[in-house]
Write a structure and sequence with these properties.
The complex is a heterodimer of chains A (381) and B (632).
Chain A: H1 2-18, H2 21-24, H3 29-49, H4 54-76, H5 79-107, E1 114-116, E2 120-122, H6 124-141, H7 149-167, H8 172-188, H9 193-214, H10 217-227, H11 237-250, H12 276-309, H13 313-337, H14 355-373
Antiparallel strand pairs in A: 1-2
Helix pairs in contact in A: 3-4, 3-12, 4-14, 5-6, 5-7, 6-7, 6-8, 6-13, 6-14, 7-8, 8-13, 11-12, 12-13, 12-14, 13-14
Chain B: H1 10-45, H2 47-55, E1 58-64, E2 71-72, E3 78-90, H3 92-95, H4 98-108, H5 113-123, E4 133-136, H6 141-149, E5 157-166, E6 180-182, H7 185-190, E7 201-203, H8 206-210, H9 212-216, E8 220-226, E9 232-239, E10 247-249, H10 253-263, E11 268-273, E12 280-286, H11 292-295, H12 300-308, H13 330-340, E13 349-351, E14 354-356, E15 363-365, E16 373-375, H14 377-383, H15 386-396, H16 398-407, H17 429-436, H18 442-449, H19 459-470, E17 481-484, H20 504-518, E18 536-542, E19 565-572, E20 579-585, H21 591-607, H22 616-619
Parallel strand pairs in B: 2-10
Antiparallel strand pairs in B: 1-8, 2-3, 3-4, 3-5, 6-7, 8-9, 10-17, 11-12, 11-20, 13-16, 14-15, 18-19, 19-20
Helix pairs in contact in B: 4-5, 10-21, 13-15, 13-16, 13-20, 14-20, 15-18
Classes of the chains: A mainly alpha (381), B alpha+beta (632).
Chain lengths: 381, 632
């Protein structure tokens, strides 16, 4: 116990010395600098991808501002205070998802939004992106680690309910992100390797059996098209063929800003949203994408440092899951646009156009900042 | 992990999470390397390939529409094929100011402002970027030449050869095979956008519509490299389309023509089917129209002429025409009476020329005002005696009558593969309560017994009800497609066969129907004179306007279009039926006098060889007319 006490004393010492202005207002300097860099870069790429639309640019900048405010506000909240309200937030989130489900079936179409005209309009599934890992972190932080089978089962139940509701919307991309965010908490909490491996080992024969005994030909076809979009060039494969050509023609150094031909001409219907990396790849080349990946890597690295240094188990689990989920965004988006992964509709964080996802992402970084800056100088035993 | 006292070991938890952070960090780095490797592959290794594609040229994916399945009659005569035709297509993205280019087209081809409106409408139906949209079909040689000369003024405009549907038999099959037309916006929403990405037409009615998925096939595509002007430089990859399936119909073009000839220009409908299979052999609705008019877009004037014609050529009388079945329903009513046990074949009823319900003074008249005296079942069918059937219907009652006639297909869709068939109407107590908010009156049961009142049936349903009598209750849904790509169509919703307590009841009714044709006092005996085979038949009259109590139908007072419709149903040879025919002649008045000869002509055309003898395949188990109708 003595060494522990020493460590705390020493870190208190360090912290006191570094208690700068930024820490007083609960903002993490490295994260803020990286985020602002990304934002600036994003506006450049977006200007080109949107066909030089100032309108779009101003909207995106506004969303960024709103996101920063939301990040700042969330960073002020103590993690313990947040943890207290998480269960209630989870219940509200699920109820909203059910409401969307019911309304969507009545309205025959748009099924992702809660819309009270003139008051508010938002997607409950975005809200769940933060609440989901927070709920699992809250639940597991009260148990012994690594989690028992029973607690794993409860966690999976808590993840499964919103997951199914969002799959039904249907919004495969978001539902996978939410699934990932919950599962990463389990992973961070030390979910036993042998369970992880046995689930994977069991999934393979089940999938094979489904394929050979239970699926109709048209279902198989749909899955094949999903896994290999290029086999369907008149549908989703169209985007992939064009985005690959765009990225590939960028070469090492790219064609230069606003000089991309492939991405500007008609071909990429989603060039400013999910497929924006194709514009970046064409205009800034491999160098540009690597620079972007470097910034992402630094953000993720900082997130993992925050995870490791967090003082409470809740903070650790939540920070770890949010960081890893952020990486899933990056990997799935770039993977799908470059033709490595199926197309599931995940935006490229901070670069793709879209206010809602921007605000959610910045809020998540607000949580990270909160975890990092609300430190207790006395050990909690 | 069972601890006697659960104390949280924070240091251990922290170590655990930290180890997972390390695993996560390693995974992140590895996967980022995978992404970079992928981008290196695309941007460095495949750079030349992609940059050539994007520098001067572009990759396009062009759908290749599948060629539509052909439609044949049962002998292999082509009813619907695809004919190459030149059409004018325009690609909006390449035309620059495309509305101006439209003006130029109109000017070059000397077309009217109306045409320009149509072109503009068609252009707006384009679905994908860089998709050539056909705007004018069936270009003449001269038009092609004019476009070629003025090509420099028409960027993005091309003359393309495409296959369009063609119906070489013209009017003959317009009501059975249907026709194709341009896909409209509403239809577009319900179609698979990928599979129809190269297709601009679809089946609108009939077989063309019902078997649209089978006839259409699966789209193919090619990835092509084009230059900046959109000219295809080379094909990078090609996947062939899967052509649509060919359909062989059960219709017989010769029988179809014979049936049309038998109608001799009168408005009406003829259905002929094979009772043992349900195959429809002929399906005539007259007057008809030329389905070719619709394929490439009918002009507004031509369409309004067809639509507003008093003869209603677009109206499908076989599937959509609803008529009270009249006396043609009597065989089915007789089956209901026999099977419920309220009558036997020898039950006799005295006919004074009318029937009265007990305690009512309304007289329900027999068509023969003088009355037929004592009648049994055989005589009742032969003479089409209304009084007998009033009495029978009264005894059976509405509930049982309704149930039996439902089994015969009245009030429901009977066909297997016909588009927009009307279900007709078989009234019941419940139906009347729900739709009219009224109780059922006994008198309404009586007139149902002679096929009048609320009951309504299509000529197809009449043919099917007759086929059931011919086939002793065995259900085969009438269908037009004999095979689709060699496969017989499958009935996924088969009707239950009609099983009688005493199967010989079928023979009794069959015998009565033979008396109609061959009996000394049979109502349609004139139509059977000289027949080489025994016919079983039944005439009927469908009232167009009601006649008041005590008034007599006087044809001289009734306008031509208000005269009764003549109906006749029959099958032959009576002891082993090969063909069932139902005929409806609008305002023909007399079922036995006008419709029965049409039935006879259609039967002759099917059963007799050119020399006028019974074809050997139908004669094999047929007996001489005198001893027929003695089965089992």
């Amino acid at each position: 116990m003595k060494s522990n006490f020493d460590r705390i004393l020493s870190s208190e010492d360090v912290m006191r010395r570094r208690a700068t202005f930024l820490q007083k207002i609960h903002v993490d300097g490295p994260l803020l600098i990286l985020l602002l860099t990304l934002a600036a870069g994003s506006l450049f790429v977006l200007y080109s991808a949107s066909g030089k639309s100032w309108d779009l640019l101003i909207k995106q900048a506004t969303s960024f501002g709103i996101g920063l405010v939301s990040m700042f506000v969330i960073a002020q909240l103590e993690p313990r205070f947040m943890a207290r309200w998480v269960p209630a937030a989870y219940v509200i989130g699920v109820l909203l998802l059910v409401a969307v489900d019911v309304m969507g079936h009545n309205a025959m179409g748009a099924t992702r939004w809660i819309n009270i005209p003139g008051v508010i309009r938002f997607q409950p599934s975005e809200f769940m992106k933060i609440i989901m890992p927070a709920t699992i972190a809250w639940y597991l932080s009260k148990r012994t680690l690594p989690p028992h089978l029973k607690h794993v089962a409860v966690s999976l139940g808590l993840i499964g309910l919103p997951f199914i509701l969002i799959v039904r919307q249907p919004d495969l991309g978001t539902s996978l992100l939410i699934l990932a965010s919950g599962t990463f908490v389990l992973f961070m909490a030390g979910l036993r390797w042998r369970w992880i491996i046995s689930v994977i080992a069991a999934a393979v024969p089940v999938a094979v059996a489904m394929w050979f005994f239970f699926m109709h030909d048209y279902q198989k076809q749909r899955i094949l098209t999903f896994l290999d979009p290029e086999s369907d060039p008149l549908g989703t494969g169209w985007n992939i063929i064009q985005s690959k050509a765009a990225i590939g023609s960028g070469g090492v150094f790219g064609k230069g800003w606003l000089m991309g031909t492939q991405s500007h001409l008609d071909f990429l219907p989603e060039s400013h949203t999910d497929f924006i990396i194709a514009v970046l790849g064409e205009e800034f080349g491999l160098v540009g994408i690597c620079a972007l990946l470097l910034i992402y890597l630094l953000l993720i690295g900082r997130g993992l440092v925050i995870t490791a240094q967090a003082q409470t188990l809740y903070g650790k689990l939540l920070a770890g899951s949010l960081t890893m989920t952020f990486f899933v965004y990056v990997f799935v988006n770039i993977g799908m646009v470059s033709g490595l992964l199926p197309v599931v509709g995940v935006p490229l964080p901070f670069i793709s156009y879209g206010g809602t996802s921007l605000v959610t992402l910045l809020s998540a970084f607000g949580v990270l900042m909160s975890v990092h800056t609300h430190r207790k100088w006395i050990a909690q035993v | 992990m069972s601890q006697p006292i659960r104390l949280k070991d924070h240091e251990k938890d922290a170590r655990l999470v930290r180890s997972r952070v390390v695993v996560g960090a390693v995974a992140v780095v590895v996967l980022i390397c995978v992404l970079i490797a992928r981008l290196y592959f695309l941007q460095v290794i495949q750079y030349d390939y992609h940059s050539t594609l994007s520098e001067n040229n572009r990759v396009h994916v062009q759908p290749i529409p599948p060629s539509r399945g052909l439609i044949y009659d049962r002998n292999g005569v082509v009813i619907a094929d695809n004919r190459p035709s030149f059409s004018l297509s325009m690609t909006r993205e390449r035309s620059g100011e495309w509305t101006q280019v439209l003006d130029t087209i109109v000017q070059v081809l000397e077309l009217t402002p109306d045409d320009r409106i149509i072109f503009e409408k068609r252009m707006k139906q384009g679905r994908r970027p860089f998709e050539p949209v056909p705007i004018l079909f069936e270009l003449t040689e001269e038009q092609i030449a004019r476009i070629a000369v003025n090509q420099f003024r028409l960027p993005g405009v091309e003359v393309v050869a495409q296959l369009v549907r063609h119906y070489p038999q013209g009017e003959h099959f317009a009501h059975s095979v249907g026709y194709m037309g341009r896909i409209n916006e509403k239809e577009l929403k319900s179609l698979d956008p990928v599979n129809y990405s190269g297709t601009h037409h679809m089946g609108k009615t009939g077989i063309e519509r019902f078997y649209e998925p089978e006839l259409h096939g699966q789209v193919g595509y090619e990835e092509v490299e084009t230059n900046a002007r959109g000219r295809v430089l080379r094909v990078l990859k090609r996947t062939d389309p899967v052509p649509g399936k060919d359909i062989v119909l059960s219709l017989d073009i010769q029988l179809q023509e014979a049936a049309e000839a038998a109608l001799a220009g009168r408005r009406g409908a003829v259905v002929a089917l094979d009772p043992s299979t349900g195959e429809v052999l002929a399906m005539v609705s007259q007057p008809s129209f030329d389905p070719n008019l619709f394929v490439t877009g009918i002009s507004f004037k031509a369409y309004s002429e067809l639509r507003d014609s008093v003869d209603r050529p677009l109206f499908n009388r076989i599937l959509r025409g609803l008529y009270p079945p009249g006396s043609t329903i009597k065989p089915a009513v007789a089956i209901a009476g026999l099977d419920t046990g309220v009558i036997t074949a020898s039950t006799r009823v005295f006919d004074p020329g009318y029937y009265m319900l007990p305690n009512y003074d309304h007289k329900y008249r027999n068509w023969n005002r003088t009355g037929d005296g004592w009648v049994d079942l055989d005589t009742a069918i032969m003479r089409s005696n209304d009084t007998y059937f009033y009495d029978l219907a009264h005894k059976v009652g509405i509930d049982r009558l309704s149930a039996y006639l439902n089994k015969f297909g009245i009030g429901q869709k009977v066909s297997l593969d016909m588009f927009e068939e009307s279900p007709g109407l078989m009234p019941s107590r419940d139906w009347k309560r729900v739709t009219r908010r009224q109780a059922w009156f006994p008198g309404e049961t009586l007139i149902l017994g002679i096929g009048q009142g609320y009951m309504q049936a299509t000529p197809l349903q009449l043919a099917q009800a007759t086929a059931l009598v011919a086939n002793k209750g065995k259900w085969n849904r009438p269908h037009l497609a004999r095979t689709v790509e060699g496969q017989k169509p499958v009935d996924e919703n088969p009707m239950p066969d009609i099983v009688l307590r005493d199967p010989s009841d079928w023979t009794k009714v069959n015998h009565g129907m033979q008396q109609v044709m061959h009996g000394a006092r049979g109502t349609a005996r004139k139509a059977a004179i000289g027949a080489q085979y025994r016919i079983a038949g039944k005439s009927g009259t469908a009232q167009v306007v009601a006649i008041r109590q005590g008034e007599k139908y006087d044809r001289s007072k009734v306008q031509e279009r208000h005269r009764d419709h003549a109906l006749f149903v029959g099958f032959a040879p009576a002891d082993s039926p090969k063909i069932v025919v139902a005929v409806m002649i609008e305002n023909g008045e007399s079922g036995s006098g006008v419709a029965a000869p049409v039935v006879r002509q259609v039967m002759d055309a099917w059963l007799l060889d050119p020399q006028g003898h019974l074809k050997p395949e139908y004669a094999s188990n047929a007996q001489p007319p005198e001893t027929a109708a003695r089965e089992e």
